Amino acid sequence: MRVLVAMSGGVDSAVAAARLVAEGHDVTGVHLALSRNPASYRSGARGCCSLEDSHDARRVADKLDIPFYVWDFAEEFHEAVVEDFVAEYRAGRTPNPCLRCNEKIKFAAVLDRGVRLGFDAVATGHYADLRHHDDSSVTLHRAADAAKDQSYVLGMLNQDQLRRCLFPLHDVEKPVVREEANVLGFGVARKPDSHDICFIADGDTQGFLGRYIDERPGSIVDAAGQVLGEHLGTHRYTVGQRRGLDLRVPAPTGEPRYVLSIEPVSNTVVVGGREDLAVGELGCIRATWTGEPVAGRWRGEAQFRAHGIPQPASFEAVGDGLRVTFDEPASGVAPGQTVVAYDDDRVVGSAVIAETSR
């Protein structure tokens, strides 16, 4: 099988490529250049997609003696991920740029180009499990390593995409991956995992957004509408935030206040007690299914963060969206996040949270 491996420059994609070579596949490595100025992206332990990462990926490809290319997706990435990230914050929502990158770049643009070039499949170093069935369908499941499971960020993939994906690390835990890399002599064997947002080089999300969104002072209010303080822009806040509110009026009980909602139209940030963060129901849009769309109501588990705890819930498809009702109230859920539906360890589909209610 001709396999295109997306090599990020980290240890996971390096070992994924090595495993495929060992299995006898015709493997080609590709690193994605996602920044108009790669030097501005995070390096080392702080992110991915940097010049350092591209050099690390090339060194692994050389050791494996496989062809290696760098594909420039900077414009596509900026439009689909960076601009979307800014637009979502401007609208008072909380996006997940890594999930968006998987959806629009790694498993759409890269896969499409790979297929046009004659590759049978695209592989990555994601920790997730694909199971092939007699009817030619493919189901997506959690990985063996629960601590590293990344099925959540793949929940938007459809059946056609899954049929052309390979996740060689589905059955292995992270320490074993590092040991395999060490035995193979890869310099990335002890390279720290990437985290945070790769296109925000200094980690200052507010500062980054401030370059795109003008300051627009407004009121911080409680649920009754009482003005408690002032903000410099709703984009500076996320649901569940506690620090940085700088309120002039203390809570009657003396307890901390948290951001409950962000309302860009009225330019207000609503705060309240921790108990007010609890939501019981989600209204979601843009549902996607890993297999056939599911009609009616069904039971499963809902996850709304990459490494969040799955919550027992009921689901119901509503038009092209999804209604999610938790068995017990969940906290810290924000519009703009993605909820992924599971049936035990199988990913059923995903949708974008549009509204929450108690």
UniProtKB/TrEMBL annotation:
GO biological process terms on file: tRNA wobble position uridine thiolation
Localization annotation: Cytoplasm
Keyword Membrane part of the UniProt annotation: no
Coiled coil: none
GO cellular component terms given for this protein: cytoplasm
Active site: C101 (nucleophile), C198 (cysteine persulfide intermediate)
Residue positions binding ATP: A6, M7, S8, G9, G10, V11, D12, S13, L32, G125
Site positions for Interaction with tRNA: H126, Q337
GO-annotated molecular function: ATP binding; tRNA binding; tRNA-uridine 2-sulfurtransferase activity
Xref: Gene3D superfamilies: Adenine nucleotide alpha hydrolases-like domains, HUPs, Translation factors
Catalysed reactions, as listed in the record: S-sulfanyl-L-cysteinyl-[protein] + uridine(34) in tRNA + AH2 + ATP = 2-thiouridine(34) in tRNA + L-cysteinyl-[protein] + A + AMP + diphosphate + H(+)
Matches recorded under PANTHER family: MITOCHONDRIAL TRNA-SPECIFIC 2-THIOURIDYLASE 1 (PTHR11933:SF5), TRNA 5-METHYLAMINOMETHYL-2-THIOURIDYLATE -METHYLTRANSFERASE (PTHR11933)
Record's protein name: tRNA-specific 2-thiouridylase MnmA
